[in-house]
C-alpha cells in the first residue's frame, strides 16, 4: 500500500496529530463554557442569602469569574477563519449570548445587594445556564455548522408555507378575527381584506415557487451531509458560500408570502417573486459549482432551476392577465 501512495503514508502522523489537536480543542471549548456556568452559580449562591460576602470574597469571586470569561472568549478568538466562517459566526453569537446573560446576572446582583434571592437573580442565573447549554450543543466543525444553518432555513420556509396554507383554508377573509363583528354594514369597505378567485390562482402558483425553494434547501442539505468534506480550505469556503446564499431564501420567501395577503398588490408580488427566483437560482448555481454536487446531484439541480423559471413564467402570465 505504501508503494501505491507513499505520500499518504508519510502524512499519516500529521493527520493523526490534526485529529488529536481537534479533539483537544473541543475539550477546551467545553471546559471553558462549563467553567463560566459553574462560576455564575457560585456567584449567585454567594449573594442568595445574608450575610453578604466580604470584600476579600468579592475580589476572589470576581477574579475567578473574569478568568472563566477570558478563557471562553479566547476559544472564539483562537478559532481561525480557515476552519470556517459559518462555524466562527455560530461560536461568536453563542459566546456573546453567554456574556450578555452573565452581564444581566451581575446587573441583578448590583440592583438588589441586600443578600436575598430575588426573582430577577433566579431568572438571570437560569439564563446563564441555558446559554451555556446551547453553547455546549454547538457544531464541532464547519460541515456541521453549515448543516445546522440549512436545517434552520428549511424550517423557516416550511413555516411560511404552512402559515399561508392555513390562512387559505381557514376563511375567505384572513383578517376576519381582527375585524369588529358588529361592523356588518361595512362589508363594502372591507373588500380589501378578502381574496378574489384571481388572487387564489396567483397564490397557488406562488406556493409552487415556495415549495421549490424548500425542496432546493432539503436537497442541498442531503448533498452537504453525504458529499461534503473539510480536507481543503477551498471546500470549507464553498460550504460557507452555500450557507450564506441559503440564508437569503427564507427572508425572500417571507416577503413573497406577505405580499400575497389582501389587498394583493400585483407589482409587489412580481418584485417578490423575482427576488425569490434570483436567490434560488443563485443557490443552485453555487451548489452546481461546488464539491458537494456530484454527478448524481446534477439532475435535481437542473430540474429545480427549470422549475424556478417555469414558476416565474406562469406567475408573470397570471399577473399580466389580472392587470389587463
TrEMBL record:
Q: Which residues form the Cyclin-D1-binding protein 1-like C-terminal domain?
A: 181-285
GO cellular-component terms in the record?
A: cytoplasm; nucleus
Pfam families referenced in this protein's UniProt entry, alphabetically: GCIP_C (PF20936), GCIP_N (PF13324)
Sorted alphabetically, which keywords does the UniProt record give?
A: Cell cycle, Cytoplasm, Nucleus
Asked if the record carries the keyword Transmembrane helix, the reply is: no
Q: Which domain of life is it from?
A: Eukaryota
Which residues span the membrane? none
Q: Where is this region: Disordered?
A: 174-193
Composition bias of kind Acidic residues appears in: 178-190
Instruction: Describe the location of the Cyclin-D1-binding protein 1-like N-terminal domain by residue ranges.
Output: 31-169
Q: Would I find Cytoplasm among this entry's keywords? A: yes
Where is the protein situated, by its record's location annotation? Cytoplasm; Nucleus
- Give the matching InterPro entries: GCIP-like, GCIP-like_N, GCIP_C
Q: Which family does it belong to?
A: Belongs to the CCNDBP1 family.
Protein's UniProt name: Cyclin D-type binding-protein 1
Organism classification: Eukaryota, Metazoa, Chordata, Craniata, Vertebrata
Amino acid at each position: 500500500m505504501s508503494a501505491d501512495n507513499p505520500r499518504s503514508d508519510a502524512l499519516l502522523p500529521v493527520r493523526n496529530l490534526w485529529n488529536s489537536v481537534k479533539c483537544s480543542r473541543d475539550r477546551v471549548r467545553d471546559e471553558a463554557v462549563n467553567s463560566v456556568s459553574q462560576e455564575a452559580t457560585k456567584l449567585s449562591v454567594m449573594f442568595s442569602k445574608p450575610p453578604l460576602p466580604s470584600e476579600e470574597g468579592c475580589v476572589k469571586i470576581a477574579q475567578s469569574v473574569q478568568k472563566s470569561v477570558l478563557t471562553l472568549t479566547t476559544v472564539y478568538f483562537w478559532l481561525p477563519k480557515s476552519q470556517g466562517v459559518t462555524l466562527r459566526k455560530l461560536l461568536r453569537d453563542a459566546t456573546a449570548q453567554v456574556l450578555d446573560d452573565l452581564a444581566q446576572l451581575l446587573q441583578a446582583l448590583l440592583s438588589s445587594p441586600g443578600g436575598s434571592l430575588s426573582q430577577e437573580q433566579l431568572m438571570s442565573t437560569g439564563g446563564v445556564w441555558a446559554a451555556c447549554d446551547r453553547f455546549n450543543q454547538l457544531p464541532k466543525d464547519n460541515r456541521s455548522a453549515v448543516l445546522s444553518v440549512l436545517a434552520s432555513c428549511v424550517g423557516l420556509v416550511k413555516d411560511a408555507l404552512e402559515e399561508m396554507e392555513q390562512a387559505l383554508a381557514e376563511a375567505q377573509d384572513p383578517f376576519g378575527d381582527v375585524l369588529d363583528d358588529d361592523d356588518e354594514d361595512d362589508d363594502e369597505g372591507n373588500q380589501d381584506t378578502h381574496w378574489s378567485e384571481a388572487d387564489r390562482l396567483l397564490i397557488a402558483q406562488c406556493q409552487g415557487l415556495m415549495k421549490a425553494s424548500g425542496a432546493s434547501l432539503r436537497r442541498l442539505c442531503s448533498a452537504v451531509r453525504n458529499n461534503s468534506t473539510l480536507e481543503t480550505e477551498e471546500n470549507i469556503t464553498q460550504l460557507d458560500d452555500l450557507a450564506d446564499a441559503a440564508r437569503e431564501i427564507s427572508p425572500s420567501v417571507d416577503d413573497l408570502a406577505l405580499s400575497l395577503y389582501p389587498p394583493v398588490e400585483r407589482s409587489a408580488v412580481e418584485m417578490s417573486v423575482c427576488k425569490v427566483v434570483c436567490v434560488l437560482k443563485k443557490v443552485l448555481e453555487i451548489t452546481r459549482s461546488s464539491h458537494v454536487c456530484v454527478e448524481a446531484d446534477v439532475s435535481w439541480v437542473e430540474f429545480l432551476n427549470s422549475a424556478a423559471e417555469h414558476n416565474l413564467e406562469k406567475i408573470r402570465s397570471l399577473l399580466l392577465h389580472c392587470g389587463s
